[in-house]
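Exercise 3.2. Students should predict the tertiary structure of the chain below and write it as structure tokens, then compare their answer with the key that follows.

Predict this chain's 3D structure.
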Amino acid sequence: MESSIMEKVVVQHNFLYAQGHQKTQSSEHYFPDHALGIMLSGESYYYSNEGTFIMKEGTICLMRRNELFKKLKKAGPNGEPPSLISLFLDQKTLHRYAAENDIPRQNAYRGKAMTDLTGDMFLKGFFDSLLPYVDQPEKLSAKIAEIKTREAIELLLQNGDAFRRLLFDFQEPYKIDLEMYMNHNFKYNIPLSSFAKLAGRSLSTFKRDFTKIFETTPEKWLQQKRLEEAHYLIAKREMRPSEVYLEVGFENLSHFSFAFKKTFGLTPSELTEQNRAMRG
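Answer key:
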């Protein structure tokens, strides 16, 4: 992740307020819980295997749990810093709500990972009611947080049966084709434990299965795969190294450049110059 400048983050119970003051901020996210959020200012671009979802000022979105996203935050058209409020709906809370309200176990949810709820005036009013807590988070007691969380659940359920299926689908990721999954998701810079969960395995089983399939460790494979993708993007797509290193899952440019030179014998910048010379 790029370093943030004057970033303000307030976390109180399962509520989060974040405001970033730099022009762009790129990060990667794995959501183990459902997240309901509103963009207060600026813009956020979410990139996943489903495509791109853009949150602009006023956008309200529900993000399904157990999803991988690359996110790019940008200042708004007038330079206002990106800021948002998010509410995380954890499994323990939803299990308790389902039991208290006699909601039966739901079939697996097959809908979109991100649902646009911007037109819902009740959810807009809900987020408006949270704004005073941004400057006085201590006022958001555990009891109030619980009440507000239940309010959010009630409001979501008013939007139709699809939200019942989404919120109360308690199935965990099942054991999937590991080779296909990793080849689709190697660019995401998340812990191996998160890859393991999303692939329906314990960490030890994930490592064992991985070694059988790829004949190397996950760490070595991920780095080599990311470097090969970076080489392709620079050499064939003519992307700048400063764009590529985040795109393929490296955390900082210097580590990326060092690993790239060790593998290919020249730095990303040298490859760029070499390409220009060949074209010129």
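Discussion points: The first helix runs from residue 91 to 100. The longest strand covers residues 24-31.
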